[in-house]
Amino acid sequence: MYILVSYMVYLSISVAATVWVATTLHRNGRLFLLDVFRGNAPLADSVNHLLVVGFYLVNLGYVALALRTGDNVGTGRQAIEIVSDKIGLVFLVLGGMHFLNLYVFSRLRRRNQEPYQAPPLSPDLRVPMEN
Amino acid sequence: MERLFIVYDPDCGLCSQIKGWLAHQPAYLRLNFVSSGSPAARRLLPSLAPGDLAVVSDEGDAWVGDRAWVICLWALRDYRRWAARLARPFLLPFAERAFAALSRNRATISRVMSLQSDTELRQALGEVEVPVCRINQP
């Protein structure tokens, strides 16, 4: 009985946390990507969607794989400890994936802004140009 | 900014080779090479000493000597990131020192590595006798 409740609690918290982080990423990442692609909204939305799909797949995949436990769950205390263990790992994986996404965003942004970067050094002098 | 004028030393083998390399790199801006000491170079930057490196943009911004190297890298697609890194305050003094050392010893480096300068190339080509073309009628 305890094991069934543990699985239910673990699944509901993990899936809810994954959905929450993915929604946050989707909402806030859009602005970032719009800046990266210089206002090209369809492209920004498309890349945003693809990133979120990848995020869901990796996280839900991990949640599903980590569900099974070989430990004996006979008391309420054991149930809480096992659920806490597993949810802690899921949160760490979510955090890692989240930072990976942020890294991808910032890298994309840097690379796309490169052609528009001003010279890295201020000029030594100004000269009049003929035309 | 769409175009950069790069004033280089055509008598120096190393500079001429680097100029050739720069000209073949994919760049964000159009690069125009101007021989230092030429009338065009004097028009661009009258105060520049002959043999010195300088970069002048079509908007009139000019970078001279060691700092001009960083701007040359900044103009290239594959090296803009490097230019940004080299321009950071803690790396810039090292980059400037390295460029200054290279620049100071450019004649020796050119001699040791047998790098031909544009002036030598022009002289060599000037000595070639072009045979007169004759058409032998049957």
Folded structure, characterized:
The complex is a heterodimer of chains A (131) and B (138). Chain A has 131 residues and is mainly α. Chain A has one domain (2-112). Chain A is 75% helix and 2% strand. Chain A contains 3 helices and 1 strand, in the order αααβ. The radius of gyration of chain A is 23 Å and the shape is elongated. Chain B is α+β, with helices and mostly antiparallel strands and 138 residues long. Chain B has one domain (3-127): 3-Layer(aba) Sandwich (Glutaredoxin). Chain B has helices spanning 13-24, 39-44, 66-74, 80-86, 92-104, 106-112, 118-127, and strands at 3-8, 30-35, 54-57, 61-64. Chain B is elongated and about 75 Å long. Chain B starts with a strand and ends in an 11-residue tail after the last helix. The model of chain B has no long low-confidence stretch (mean pLDDT 87). The chains are: A mainly alpha (131), B alpha+beta (138).
Short overview:
The complex is a heterodimer of chains A (131) and B (138). With 131 residues, chain A is mainly α.
Tags for this model:
heterodimer, A: 131 residues, mainly alpha, 3 helices, 2% strand, elongated, B: 138 residues, alpha+beta, Glutaredoxin, four-stranded mixed β-sheet, 46% helix
